[in-house]
Amino acid sequence: MPRVLLVEDNEMNRDMLSRRLQKRGFDVTIAVDGREGIDKALAEPYDLILMDISLPEIDGWTAARRLRTSPQTERTPIIALTAHAMAGDRQKALEAGCDDYDTKPIELDRLLGKMNALLNRRP
Amino acid sequence: MTTPGFTRPGLRGNEIGQLRHEMRTPVNAVLGYSEMLLEDAPEHRAHLEEAVEAAGAVLAAIEGALPPTAAEIDSRDIESLHAAIRPHQERILRAVDAIAAQAAPGQSGLAADLARIRLAAGRLVTTGVAAAPAGVGSPAADAAAGDASADAPTVIAEVPRAPVASAPPAAALDRGFRLLVVDDVADNRTVLARRLQREGHLVECAENGRDALETVAAKPFDLILLDIMMPGIDGFEVLRRLKHAPETADIPVIMISALDDLESVVRCIEQGAEDHLTKPFEPVLLRARINASLEKKRLRDREKEYIAEVKTIAEAATAVEEGRYTPASLARAAMRPDELGRLARVFDGMAAEVKAREDRLRRQVMELRQEIEAVRQGVVTTGPEDTRLPIGHALAGRYEIELVVGFGAMGTVYKAFDRELAEPVAVKVLRPDLLSDSTVVDRFKAEVRLARRISHPTVVRTHDFGEFDGLHYLTMEYVEGLTARALLDSRGRLGVAAVLALAAQLAQALAAAHAQGVIHRDIKPQNLLLDERGILKVMDFGVSRLADSAGGVREAGLLIGTPAYMAPEQLLGDDVDERTDLYATGVVLFECLTGRLPFEAESPVALVARVLQESPPCASALYEDVPTAFSALIARLLAKRREARPSSAVELQRLLDQIA
Which run of H or of E encompasses B94? Predict the structure, then answer.
């Protein structure tokens, strides 16, 4: 069962997405802001991280950059999620070290496709 | 004057991104839960598909009005967008109600998810009152403040909204700000305060102008939201008083009013308001304006802090100049991670070094003063009386002779009282035979003019050269003190610290003179005057040139000083330069440290031969307390070839610093 860390501050979206992923066989751990996301990612290994970008405390760009500098998480796939979705956000996400990028509202099949592509890429 | 066409400003750049985020986030929840229920409760497919389709329409409306590349939008476009969304919002709510009506009792999971959809749908219109379903909220408050989302029912406990890190200016909010809401209408105050509290701010309220001024005087605020139309002291007057008082002038004030005429807005801005919002206002705009104002205040505060730190560093520089710098005074600035912090750290390091050096010199001078004081106790400093100028005689009708203070090869030095300036001066009356021809006098005058340009605390100032009644004389600064000669004659040898103090001051004096192109030519203990504070004053700059110019002085046996202090090139009649003075300095320092000359002989001729041919003894070999480095430096100063000496007095200062 792939272990996924979902970093999302909006309670409803967190509840909704984590339940939908669990129903599809993912082991989902929740973090409610960037700082908690970093702490949890460094504390335990995950197969993939879903990172909301607009987060309190430490935003998703910063969190992703920090995770990329740590040996435990430098190779963990990260997908950036944002409802902000302005021009340039995708490029910013990739520059911050994210492997992929998706916008909210989430199209679950599209997101699952991206998640599986990254999970299958693992050595 | 009113301007019907006045338009409230819209949103730009990141504010648009933030609005997209706010509006798309509840769409995500509506779609997500609806799609999830399609899997879990397929019996409600028709209504759920209606909800999904309506949410899709909302999304399309958002994308149409707020495209990802939008740079600026007008507030009327936002209102149009809300209007476009509302029918779809109602479709979603009707679909949810229909499912709820059909749901079997006991389906608590379904009911909870429907509640979530309902809540998310309520937020589709940027959490504004207009988005709330009919019959929900407080109509009175809505009408007054334009926002009643705080009154919307929550089915699940809502997490307080923390500032969003990636959405400036909220991104800059690393703490809850302290805000003051001033409005005479209770509903308005309550609704606005609740909304701001939900944004994470600390909110206080005031119900009139006087209350507001008293509250602001009692505690600090980051921002004030101020109603204009109030009984008693109105908003304009409150604003005027706030901006007039230095302690409150920097608090940003956003004026909130039903007045939307241009004149009122202009008046607010002119009086110093940060912004102006017209009721009923858009909640998104309110948040954007508040965050922008707070961000500006934060930047201003940072700028003020920066300027204060710059001022601290400037004051530290003054303190260094005035000798009262304390290293801890820059501790705060030095902790800054920026260039200013670096400057403070570097400055602090340099200042600490300067202070240590000054402390060291002060200690050395103290020792020199003790040596001087010991001699002053028992030495008569007056010289023999010159019969040519009796005490009380007024030379040139101006300089009243008081006593003889020195007597030498060049003439006699008197202490005199300058009747013109009413202060003591030293008058050196020159031997008439030295100035027998006018060419020599002119050359000497030129030399004196040059010497007068030397202005340094360690050099005796030369005032004037004059001739009266057949006598040529120089007037100079009068210094009460002892010559190093008298000190040595009395003490024998001086302590190392005292000699270092004398050496440092002598090097400074020579550096100042050499910078003006003046070579002393006759540095010797007789020309080094020490006042009671231990401050050195070098005398007779330029005077010895007279002897050279006049010629025949040596032939006459009236040597300038003694060959013991003369550099080999000087004894051989070669050209002299600043290194010639450095040689003499070496002799003086050797004598001060050891109480004897480096070369001694029974006759001048034998002395000259030894100076030219022999190596001087090592001072540290004669006295163990003389540091080897100091002894080696003196040996360099006494080098026969001037190229082997330190290149300048400035270089000598540097070398002395290393020893100290």
Answer: helix B75-102
Find the residue in A nearest to B32 (Cα).
Answer: A16
List, in sequence order, every residue forming a beta bridge with B44; answer none if it has no partner: none
Note whether A54 contacts B31, CB cutoff 8 Å.
no
Contacts of B343 (CB under 8 A, 6+ apart): B313
Structure tokens at B437: 């021809």
Which DSSP string corresponds to B489-514? HHHSS--HHHHHHHHHHHHHHHHHHH
Report the alpha-carbon angle B275-B280-B281, nearest 5.
45
pLDDT digits (tens, 9 = 90+) for A52-82: 998 877 889 999 999 999 998 999 999 999 8
- pTM for this prediction: 0.42
User: In which band, very low, low, confident or very high, does the pLDDT at B126 lie, cut at 50, 70 and 90?
Assistant: low
- Please give the pLDDT value at position B5: 35
Cβ neighbours of A103 in B, within 8 Å: 24
Q: Which residues contact B603 (CB under 8 A, 6 or more apart)?
A: none
Tell whether the model's pLDDT for residue B242 goes beyond 90.
Answer: yes
User: Residue B182 in contact with residue B235, Cβ under 8 Å?
Assistant: yes
In whole angstroms, give the CA distance from residue A29 to residue B309: 46
Assign B351 to helix, strand or coil.
Answer: helix
Strand order in the sheet with A3-7: A27-31, A3-7, A48-52, A78-82, A100-103
| DSSP string covering B306-320 | HHHHHHHHHHHHHHH
- Which residues are registered as beta bridge partners of B330? none
Residues in chain B: 660
Helix (H) or strand (E) holding B197: helix B186-198
* Listed range (B38-42, B200-204, B586-590) with the worst mean pLDDT: B200-204
Which helix (H) or strand (E) element contains residue A111? helix A108-120
| Residue range B565-591, pLDDT digits in tens | 999 998 888 888 999 999 999 999 999
- Compare CB distances from A12 to B18, B120, B165 and report the shortest one's residue: B120
A65-69, B354-358, B377-381, B553-557 — most confident range: A65-69
Between the alpha carbon of residue B78 and those of residues A83, A96, B66, B513, B553, the distances in Å are 18, 32, 9, 79, 104
Can you tell me the mean pLDDT for B538-560? 55
- Kindly state whether A60 is in contact with chain B, defined as any CB-CB distance less than 8 angstroms: yes
pLDDT at B335: 74
Interface confidence, given as ipTM, is 0.86
Containing B275, the helix (H) or strand (E) segment is strand B275-278
Residue percentage of chain B with pLDDT more than 90:
26
Sort out which chain B residues have CB atoms less than 8 A from A12's CB and list them.
26, 29, 33, 116, 119-120, 156
CA proximity to B330, closest of B339, B315, B321: B315
Instruction: Tell me if residue B5 falls in helix, strand or coil.
Output: coil
The reply to whether B69 touches chain A by the CB within 8 Å rule is yes
Contacts of A23 in chain B (CB under 8 A): 36, 39
